[in-house]
Design a protein that fits this description.
By secondary structure, the protein is an alpha/beta fold. The chain contains 7 helices and 6 strands; from the N terminus they run E-H-E-H-E-H-E-H-H-E-E-H-H. Helix 2 runs antiparallel to helix 7.
Length: about 190
């Protein structure tokens, strides 16, 4: 099975994340997309970062109706701090029958050279890159790499930071979240100081 790994804190997961994940699940050669919830880094404690398991629950709620999109807490079980290259090594050990690819925004592709063992990642894994709007994005040599596939996915500029800030400000952000995610956040009074 060919699995696309979509990493993020998902704090919270929003419709933009789901549009990208569903686009790749439906319009690429991936069999599944795994939403890899990145655990909280204890060295960078942020008051706005929900507990790992609350964020995982939000991803479960968002993906329930999408059989090709799976939530994953795989990184919760790994030593911290964690790097994508280490996670992939552990995934290959646990699921040798699967082929793993990376899903990232064009902005992340631009900074990929800063990642640990990025050359190994590029040589050994297909990377699906979705477009982002940013004045800083310029084409890099990575764009032409044979393992990099630029995806013609919809451009959705919604940020979790914007959602958190506006929930705290008392604004209605419900259209940016799935109904189940919105109800969980609202019922549990999350992101309100």
């Amino acid at each position: 099975m060919k699995v696309g790994l979509y990493f993020g804190t998902f704090n919270p997961i929003h419709v933009g994340h789901m549009i990208i994940a569903n686009h790749l699940a439906e319009y690429s050669d991936l069999d599944q997309v795994w939403m890899m919830v990145t655990p909280h880094n204890p060295l960078k404690k942020k008051a706005t970062l929900l507990d790992d398991y609350q964020r995982l629950e939000l991803v479960h709620l968002a993906t329930q109706d999408f059989p090709k999109i799976k939530p994953s807490d795989f990184e919760f079980k790994l030593p911290q701090p964690n790097y994508t290259t280490n996670t992939l090594a552990h995934l290959h050990d646990k699921f040798p029958q699967h082929t793993f690819s990376l899903i990232m925004g064009e902005d992340n592709l631009r900074s990929l050279h800063k990642w640990k063992n990025y050359e190994f990642l590029m040589e050994n894994h297909q990377i699906y890159v979705y477009p982002r709007i940013s004045s800083e994005i310029e084409k890099t040599t990575h764009h032409n790499h044979p393992n990099v596939t630029m995806i013609d996915a919809p451009i959705v500029e919604i940020s979790s930071t914007f959602i958190r800030e506006n929930i705290n400000a008392g604004k209605n952000v419900q259209p940016m979240l799935s109904e189940k995610v919105w109800h969980y956040i609202d019922d549990n009074n999350l992101y309100r100081k």
